[in-house]
Amino acid sequence: MSKIHISAFNVARHAVVLGTEGETITLNVFREDFTLEQEFEIRFAEPMQHGFGLITNHDLSQPIRVRFDAGDTQPKTIMLDLFDDDVVRNESFVQWLNVIPGMNTSEGDFTSPGYTGRWGDNLNFGISIAEDDHPGVYATLLTNTLDDSTITALEGQQIRFKFERQHETGRGEVFFMPTNEEDAYFGALKLGYDPADPFKVVWEDGDTSAKFLTIDVRDDDMYLPLNNYMTWALVPGENVSRVIGPDMMYGGHTSDGRWEGPVYFMDNDNMPSLGMRVPRVEVTEGVHSTLSFEVTRTGRTDFQGTTKAWIKLEGMGDNPAELSRFGAMPDVEVSFSWGETSKMITLNLPNDSIYQGTQQIKATVVRGEHRWWNDTLIQDTVEGVSSAASVTIYDNDRAPPNLPDPQPLPNTSIDVYRYYNNDTGMHFYTRSDDEMARIKAQIPQMTPEGIGFNAFADEVLDATIAFRFYNKSTGVHLYTASLEERAFINETLPNWTEEGGAFRVSTKAGAGLDEVYRFYNTHLDSHFFTASEAERDKVMATLPQHTYEGVAFYVPETVIA
């Protein structure tokens, strides 16, 4: 058989349909399969158990019959009018209803609102009918709860309630009070509670406006190893018979009209501190493949929240390591959850063939903060900020021989020509006559722009080779005279193919040399080079998508017609 669903709008977490005296509850009945003729009954269980009928628009001794004709696709609606007397009671009533299968239905075909139980051999569900005749007060907690189960008192924060009363007659009072001496001690110490002047809200005769109670949780510098959980109560005072709510898992009402619930105190003192250390203070290229820094968290690591730390990586000393050697970025963030005491930052140490000499790299804790489990900030200053540790890296490559002081490079130059790709908006640079002839014959979208800059002739052996890379993904070229950048690209960026030496340049400034400026186009993921100061300034002023990256290399003085 297909399912037949009985639903209601307001169903409590604890499995019953919620209503209040005088309201009308609407039950909607719908089915999944429309082909059959089906019938069943809803019967009222023990209708007179309280001495009066809880449903007023039905004869509780007779069942409610529900029938679907074959092909009937429309849901059925059952209206239940709840009783409304003028008697003040300190309880709610529950009317139970039994589902009795009939023609072409069976017990397993039904779903009902909330928790489906059994009454004898039958399926049943309940309607809870709340009292509305008392001069009661509704309480709402406006500040944080711990998983909707307890009131939380965060040191340095507030506890806030909203109270609304249903009757305007007479003066009214509600108190927020501890339930025992230990909790009173806690309240005096952390909440400023005074038994002679307790926390309360007051209405005067005729006043039905909402009242608010705000309690400041003191922020001191003293860690108290108190029991985290206390029991406090919202207590009805003059002309208030009952406090209703707040709706929390571990809160509840007492027979004398009070609401009692736990208060969970969170101390922000003696919070964890951060530190930095290294498992190995020295590493050697070719022997070790990684180097590591350990960010530590010590102290009270069991608090209900997280600790975040921001780390700065940088080279240090006379020969500082470049982070690109390790594929690392300068800024690292780590986060500690409940109970965690260690986070590792591990960098790869490539075994390359480039001599870098002995280098050092340092990690420093530059910032930290503590937050509660719900991301509320506790402290943005954490003990241990500025903690640092360093690693020394020994090179296994042969050092170059001692060379005499460099002499000025002879000013023997060649032309490097620049082309503009009209399809992609990118630039291309070449010194090759054969390559220029091929571009002219086969690539009409490449527009020649003349000499881009000069370069040293091949016979100037002391000049540095600028290598050319081709990006197989985007079709762009990159030129670099940096051995570290060349090694980084070859080792970490497989979509780039090295095409060999493009031309010769100088990596140092000198007489008779011009600077070649490099830009990165963030829109096209490409680079642009120019030896013209005027063009550099124009790009910087008018093309915001171009990021200036500085001087790429130096070339013989370039005269561009």
Give a written overview of the molecule:
By secondary structure, the chain is mainly beta. Strands 2, 4, 5, 7, 9 and 10 form a six-stranded mixed sheet that branches. Strands 12, 14, 15, 17, 19 and 20 form a six-stranded mixed sheet that branches. Strands 22, 24, 25, 27, 28 and 29 form a six-stranded mixed sheet that branches. Strand 27 (359-372) and strand 28 form a beta hairpin.
Any chance you could write out the topology, listing elements then pairs?
Layout: E1 4-8, E2 17-20, E3 24-31, E4 38-44, E5 64-68, E6 76-81, E7 93-101, E8 110-111, E9 117-119, E10 122-130, E11 136-141, E12 151-154, E13 158-165, E14 172-178, H1 181-191, E15 199-203, E16 211-216, E17 229-236, E18 242-244, E19 252-253, E20 259-266, E21 273-277, E22 282-284, E23 290-298, E24 305-316, E25 331-336, E26 342-348, E27 359-372, E28 377-379, E29 388-394, E30 413-421, E31 427-430, H2 433-442, E32 446-456, E33 464-471, E34 477-480, H3 483-492, E35 496-505, E36 513-521, E37 526-530, H4 533-542, E38 546-556
Parallel strand pairs: 1-8, 2-10, 11-18, 12-20, 22-29
Antiparallel strand pairs: 1-3, 3-6, 4-5, 4-7, 7-10, 9-10, 11-13, 13-16, 14-15, 14-17, 17-20, 19-20, 21-23, 23-26, 24-25, 24-27, 27-28, 27-29, 30-31, 30-32, 33-34, 33-35, 36-37, 36-38
Organism: Teichococcus globiformis
Protein name: Calx-beta domain-containing protein
Domain DUF5648: 416-555
